[in-house]
Each structure stands twice: as structure tokens, then as C-alpha cells.
Amino acid sequence: MASASLQFFAFILALFGVFGDIAATLLPNWKVNADVGSNIITAITQMQGLWMDCTWYSTGMFSCTLKYSILSLPVYIQAARTTMVLSCILSAFGICITTVGMKCTRLGGDTDSKNNACFAGGICFILAGIFGLVPTCWYTREIISNFLDQTIPESSKHEPGGAVYTGFISAGFLLIAGVIFCSSCFKRQQGAWIYPPKQHHFPSTEQESNAGYSLKDYV
């Protein structure tokens, strides 16, 4: 019962991780401007994301420009696009697989099949967490290095936006959920390896009768 409750808790964490991962991938505020300088009257916030750049004006208007060209983008943005999409796909696969393998569901067949499904889903969550953690760390490093660069003007410097923090938290949720699913299955398998079932060997009655017959003949 405790293992089933722990798996359900990990499944809830994985759901939050999947939704946060998708939101972080689509949000345009991966980095926001630190200081708009002389344009403070006209532009409130300038944001840049993986797929579009947006500007929020003081008049209430909100305009966005899609990034159509892929080759013209920096390497870290191209890598972030690829890894975040892979993270979303793997986490979605993990949700489907662990739904079959969880103990509180009636899917997946026998116990061994459900344990294997949970282990496979946990691996998907761990990989999704790693794929989600790498681009957020790389993106944050680029923002901080540009912010500390003295040759870059103040109007061109940015700070990490809400999408970066959402990506960090979602990756942590996915990693924790994956570790819980894998450890819950590994403990059961490890216990079976350490304490194998005892096999009792009983002598055959036929052998006893034959042995008794031979002794009588020789006596």
C-alpha cells in the first residue's frame, strides 16, 4: 500500500512536470530586458523566447514576432528547442507507460509486467528531466555571461524570465518522479535476487523402496 501511494505521488509530480515542461517550451519569456533605457515610456517589457520575441507596450498592446529562420539563431537556442521538445515527448511517453504499470491501476497484466512498465516510465521521466535541465542551465549561463559583459550596452542586457524558472522546476519534478518509479521497482527485484524462494527436495519413495529391496536381497 505504501509503494502504491508513493507511485501515485510520483505520478502527480510527473504530471506537474509535463505541464510545466510544455509551458516552458511555449512561453516567450525565456529572457526579459533588464533596462529599456530611453524607451521606458513606449515599451514596458521586451521578452525573447525559443520560438518568438514579444514586446508589451504601455498602451496595452502586445506584439510578437516569430523566429522563422533556424540557422540564424544562436547555438544555445537551437539546442534548447531540440532538447525541450524531446523532453516533452519523453515525459508524455512516461505518463502513458506509468499509467499502465502503476499498482493502483488494473492495466498491464501481471506484477512483473507492471514493474517493468513502471521502470521504463521512470527511465523516460529521468531522461526528460535531463533534457529539460540542460537547456535551462545553458540558457541561464548565456544570459548571465552577457549581463556581466562590460562591452554590451545596458539596453541589450537581459535577465532570466519566468519560462527558465518553470523549466528548472519542471525538470526537478520529472527527475524526482523518475527516481521514485525506478527505485520502487528496483527494490522489489533486488529483494527477489537476495532472498530467492527456498526449494525443498524430498527423496523419492520409489528410490527408498528400491534401496530397501536391494538391502534385503543382499542380507
TrEMBL record:
<keyword id="KW-1133">Transmembrane helix</keyword>
<protein>
    <recommendedName>
        <fullName>Claudin</fullName>
    </recommendedName>
</protein>
<feature type="signal peptide">
    <location>
        <begin position="1"/>
        <end position="24"/>
    </location>
</feature>
<dbReference type="InterPro" id="IPR004031">
    <property type="entry name" value="PMP22/EMP/MP20/Claudin"/>
</dbReference>
<comment type="function">
    <text>Claudins function as major constituents of the tight junction complexes that regulate the permeability of epithelia.</text>
</comment>
<comment type="similarity">
    <text>Belongs to the claudin family.</text>
</comment>
<keyword id="KW-0965">Cell junction</keyword>
<dbReference type="GO" id="GO:0005198">
    <property type="term" value="F:structural molecule activity"/>
</dbReference>
<feature type="transmembrane region" description="Helical">
    <location>
        <begin position="161"/>
        <end position="182"/>
    </location>
</feature>
<dbReference type="InterPro" id="IPR006187">
    <property type="entry name" value="Claudin"/>
</dbReference>
<dbReference type="GO" id="GO:0005886">
    <property type="term" value="C:plasma membrane"/>
</dbReference>
<keyword id="KW-1003">Cell membrane</keyword>
<keyword id="KW-0812">Transmembrane</keyword>
<feature type="transmembrane region" description="Helical">
    <location>
        <begin position="84"/>
        <end position="105"/>
    </location>
</feature>
<keyword id="KW-0472">Membrane</keyword>
<keyword id="KW-0732">Signal</keyword>
<dbReference type="GO" id="GO:0005923">
    <property type="term" value="C:bicellular tight junction"/>
</dbReference>
<dbReference type="InterPro" id="IPR017974">
    <property type="entry name" value="Claudin_CS"/>
</dbReference>
<keyword id="KW-0796">Tight junction</keyword>
<dbReference type="Pfam" id="PF00822">
    <property type="entry name" value="PMP22_Claudin"/>
</dbReference>
<feature type="transmembrane region" description="Helical">
    <location>
        <begin position="117"/>
        <end position="141"/>
    </location>
</feature>
